[in-house]
Amino acid sequence: MKIAFHGAARTVTGSKHLITLKNGKKILLDCGMFQGMGKETDSLNRDFGFDPTEVTYMVLSHAHIDHTGLIPRLVKQGFRGPIYCTHATRDLAEILLLDSAEIQEDDIKFSNKKRAKEGAPYLQPLYTVDDAKFAINFLKPVNFNNWITIDPDIQVMFTDAGHIVGAACIHLRITEYGKTQQITFSGDIGRYNDAILKSPAVFPQADYILMESTYGSTLHADAAPADDELLRYIHETCVQKGGKLIIPAFSVGRTQELLYTLNKAQLAGKLPKVDIFVDSPLSTEATAVTKAHPEVFNRQVSDLLKKDNDPFDFPGLRYVKSVDESKNLNFRKEPCVIISASGMAEAGRVKHHIANNIDEQRNTILIVGYCEPESLGGRLMRGAKEVSIYGTRFEVRAEVGVIRSMSAHGDYEDLSQWLACQNPRDIKKLFLVHGEYDVQQIFKKWLFKKGFLDIEIPDRHYEIGLT
């Protein structure tokens, strides 16, 4: 048995890991899109590093585009096997993949207009809306915490990862020549005591572990101050300065956490009377999916549902639907909060809102999640004085704020707690994936102290045999 790492290897995007059995069957763990990798992004997404027609099964950890975004391309290039995932992941993946396809089609049209003027050949999108619709048919939802047999030699089980709605850790039991071994893939590990979701679950002893390491060198601040920080930015920007607070937020996970936090503040009488807009059709759909899966909520949210039938809604909240409504926000003079996708500010309506508000000191751009260093959000986080948006240079006059503790990824203590159910002596090898290389090296030293002695940090397309 071998495993190859074709994405999220020494970076935090493009998750793809391919297991090849001795009998030739192949299991793909995730099929994510690379995001925020600069000029290299498109070429990375066009070359899998393996033949899609040779993949037998795919198992999906969760719906984020950096884990699902190339599924339609995988199918378009010949994959025809089942894709196992949880029920909520299936529901979220449908809306996310259709949205991804629409963005690509629009972006390609824009690019091809410029290329036509330059006499350059036309480009094709990675996939179309029709490709995405076809690929969704291959998603096969299953329940948490049940071993299911997908092949005479392969069993799979999902346990709660606590990252976003439906997110799961994947556990594979693979039997070769009478010997059964368990491979565990963490997917993205959430935080213990998350505001909305259940904590990551314990899982059976594994032989090999593929573990995310996004915040392997970071200790998040407590969650409570994040609520206070959000209210502080609203008060300082909207009430004191009369400006707009622009919050790039992932449609799935971060937007719902923000709405839940604001709802709690409103119930407690702490939320200033300011209009709050969710300007992302995808976020609206994702919030509806979240509401449809209360089985993933933690006890705190479940208790709140007994007295508040919608913990993601409150007076003053408005959902923006049409493009014209979104554009009208740019002409609005009154202070407001605009929550819009994408979280890294690389695409979607938030990019336009940033372009229209970045040059006024009274406004604030508030980053509330991880941003790839080369993304627009990442450059703003690093203190860029000038940024390029849609080919135009903008001076950064608006305040740029960061709330680091509002992350769906666990910090090194959360990651260590996830591993606490394992006996380090029984782990043959632990692979660190989904992390920046310098962070992974720090986390590797931390894990050594915890007793995990055989730790590897694979590079892209690295392949290794598993004994």
Automatic annotation (TrEMBL):
Domain of life of the organism encoding this protein: Bacteria
GO molecular function: hydrolase activity; RNA endonuclease activity
Swiss-Prot/TrEMBL keywords: Hydrolase
Domain Beta-Casp, residue spans: 255-380
Entry-linked Pfam families: Beta-Casp (PF10996), Lactamase_B (PF00753), RMMBL (PF07521)
Domain Metallo-beta-lactamase residues, every copy: 13-234
PANTHER family according to UniProt: CLEAVAGE AND POLYADENYLATION SPECIFICITY FACTOR FAMILY MEMBER (PTHR11203), INTEGRATOR COMPLEX SUBUNIT 11 (PTHR11203:SF37)
Protein name as annotated: Metallo-beta-lactamase family protein
Taxonomic lineage from the root: Bacteria, Pseudomonadati, Bacteroidota, Chitinophagia, Chitinophagales
